[in-house]
Design brief:
The structure is a single chain. It contains 20 helices and twelve strands. The chain is of the alpha/beta class and about 450 residues long. The protein folds into two domains: about 240 residues, NAD(P)-binding Rossmann-like Domain (Rossmann fold, 3-Layer(aba) Sandwich); about 190 residues, N-(1-d-carboxylethyl)-l-norvaline Dehydrogenase, domain 2 (Orthogonal Bundle), CATH 1.10.1040. It has a six-stranded parallel β-sheet. Strands 4-3-10 form a three-stranded mixed β-sheet, with helices on both faces. Strands 9-11-12 form a three-stranded mixed β-sheet, with helices on one face. Helix 5 crosses helix 6, helix 9 packs across helix 14 and helix 17 crosses helix 19. The longest helix is centred in the middle third of the chain and has 21 residues.
Length: about 450
């Protein structure tokens, strides 16, 4: 087996080699998983290629695991991305750090101008678990402290996670951990622009690695597989210099919120509905069922789209059609178990917030409620539950629908007191869970309006 590296890059076809070779590190990324490697790192390389500005190499940092470093370090941090039929080796990543490495020094380096994060929804917590490592937010604040002490200049910190108001959320968490002198420095030198990211990146399989080896001519254990579609919308609020991401197709705007809400609710909300209702192994299989695809269309049209505003110049109908096409792509093999993880952290912004808005407008969000009922059935019947609140979610799978809904709605971190006490929402979810349990999904969809 010949492994991908700079020494073996000549074996790769010229058209599949990196577009740029950075000479310096200008971006530090926290959470260097598959999504970052298929999204922000690609935009960064394309920006360097478009401008010739090669100062924007990426230093990626893992929060808990050494797995990504184990894949990329032997390959000189090179890896391939397959997007549809297009395959290219990406060279924008220059270094991968593991827990224990000096992340603060990289954050304090004068040439570092931007920090990006993909740490997932559950990464946005203040304090570490008693027996756990420092949080990503804590490590970021330690880096800001070192940067302030070094007087290393301004820094832009861009959250790329699926959270509403991700920039403001991150800024608030950082602020809480800053002592007064550091807070004063940060207020003058650090910005936290919001962003919205969109690209479906399923977990890489052994078959994907074999396919990439056949295409590249070398073995690439860090390869990622994604779809051709990609989108990045960033609030134009940078503290200093930045990669020319706009030259690579990113959209710089004054207000990200309309785009963020659209993506969280239409794409991610539909994904959650697929994960908790369909029973399929892959997203494409779920959408291949005409009745279920029809339910997704109605979910987007009737319960989710009415909560979206500020998109008058955007082709919302075309975007929804494109989502169903993307979901139906069998080449992605996007496993629903990957989407189903951490549901307690995802449901509020994906489905519960739009449910609140529909209830406040006097409408019954029946289609959202069915997806929530599906989640309740999932957490009470799953053999293994990947969720930070798993101990509180699991319960008697034979309890009646009303008892299960009563128990789970009482978890205020998820539903808040408003949805817990909303009789309309409670009745809709209870009805949906009863139907799913008694009749199954197909019959429930046939009789949804009765």
């Amino acid at each position: 087996m010949v492994r991908l590296s700079r020494a073996t890059l000549s074996r790769v076809a010229a058209e599949a080699r990196p577009l740029a070779e950075p000479r310096a590190t200008g971006v530090v990324h926290l959470g260097i998983g598959a999504f970052h490697r298929a999204h922000q790192a690609v935009y960064t390389e394309q920006a360097m290629a478009a401008t010739g500005d090669d100062r924007w190499g990426v230093c990626g940092a893992s929060q808990r695991s050494t797995a990504v470093a184990g894949l990329l370090r032997p390959q000189d941090c090179l890896y391939g991305v397959r997007a549809g039929d297009d395959v290219r080796v990406i060279g924008s990543v220059r270094e991968v750090l593991v827990p224990g490495d000096d992340l603060a020094a990289r954050l304090a380096a004068p040439q570092t101008a931007v920090v990006t994060l993909t740490i997932t929804e559950k990464g946005y917590r203040r304090a570490p678990r008693p027996d756990g490592p420092p949080t990503a937010i804590g490590r970021l604040v330690a880096g800001l402290r070192a940067r302030a002490a070094a007087d290393a200049g301004p820094l832009t910190v861009v959250s790329c996670d699926n959270l509403p108001g991700n920039g403001a959320t991150l800024a608030a968490l950082v602020t809480e951990l800053c002592e007064p002198p550091l807070l004063r420095w940060a207020e003058q030198n650090v910005t936290f622009p919001a962003s919205m990211v969109d690209r479906i990146v399923p977990a890489t399989t052994p078959a994907d690695l074999d396919d990439m080896e056949a295409r590249l001519g070398v073995r690439d254990l860090g390869a990622v597989v994604t779809e051709p579609f990609t989108q990045w919308v960033i609030e134009d609020d940078f503290a200093g210099d930045r990669p020319a991401w706009d030259r690579a197709g990113a959209l710089l705007v004054g207000d990200v919120r309309p785009y963020e809400r659209m993506k969280l609710r239409l794409l991610n909300g539909s994904h959650s509905a697929i994960a908790y209702l369909s029973g399929a192994e892959h997203v494409s299989e779920a959408v291949g069922d005409a009745a279920f695809a029809g339910y997704l269309r109605r979910l987007m049209d009737e319960d989710l789209s009415p909560t979206l505003h500020g998109l008058d110049a955007f082709d919302l109908a075309g975007y929804k059609r494109s989502l169903l096409t993307r979901f139906a792509n069998p080449g992605l093999r996007h496993r629903v178990t990957q989407i189903a993880a951490d549901g307690s952290q995802k449901l509020p912004q994906r489905l519960l917030d739009p449910a609140r808005e529909r209830l406040a407008a006097g409408h019954e969000p029946r289609l959202i409620a069915l997806a929530v009922a599906g989640w309740m059935r999932y957490v009470t019947t799953a053999r293994e539950l990947d969720d930070p609140l798993a101990d509180r979610l699991t319960g008697d799978p034979h309890a009646g629908a009303a008892a299960t809904v009563e128990r789970l709605l009482a978890i205020e971190e998820i539903f808040g007191p408003d949805l817990r006490d909303d009789r309309v929402f409670r009745d809709l979810v209870t009805d949906g869970l009863h139907r799913l349990t008694a009749d199954g999904l197909a019959a429930t969809l046939r009789t949804l309006d009765t």
